[in-house]
Amino acid sequence: MIPLSTRLAAVRTRGDIKGFAEAVERDDPLRAELVAFVTARGVEVEPEMSVKRLVRAALGRSDDAQVRKNPIHRDEAFTCAHCGAAVPPGGAPVRDHCPRCLRGLHVDVIPGDRAAGCGGVLDPVGFERRPEVVIQYRCRRCIHTFQVRAHPDDKVPPSLDPRELPGPQGA
Questions:
Q1: Half-sphere exposure of 15 toward its Cβ, with a 13 Å CA cutoff?
Q2: What pLDDT, on the 0 to 100 scale, is given for residue 37?
């Protein structure tokens, strides 16, 4: 029989976790060994704890699994941090930048997540037509970059040159 530590070392992806959890569910001695291993690491094992959660705890990934890594877009009115314009909600797609100066507020490494953050102003540094216009941004404070689709009412320069935007570029 392969030792638990060797089997855990082979678990790398979410699919591996799922497959190993299914094997543990079919093997009561392996489940008992896994529970003992997790308990020895200081994790309190609850009776209703899923086997996948036990495996993540054994791998030291329990807390990581609870961190949301996909964008949480909030469609709410805001005041532009650059030009001071009152910006209404955008509907679909969510409005995360000012339609007048095209700047936004960098609140996290995930664009649109206003739950945490950097707080730097996002400057448009480039545009691309794909067929819709895509605005490329860079944060003044942390230099994080990302891109979003332009809204129909955004004042995108006809030549797609960010130097034609109102107000200073950069810091």
A1: 0
A2: 92
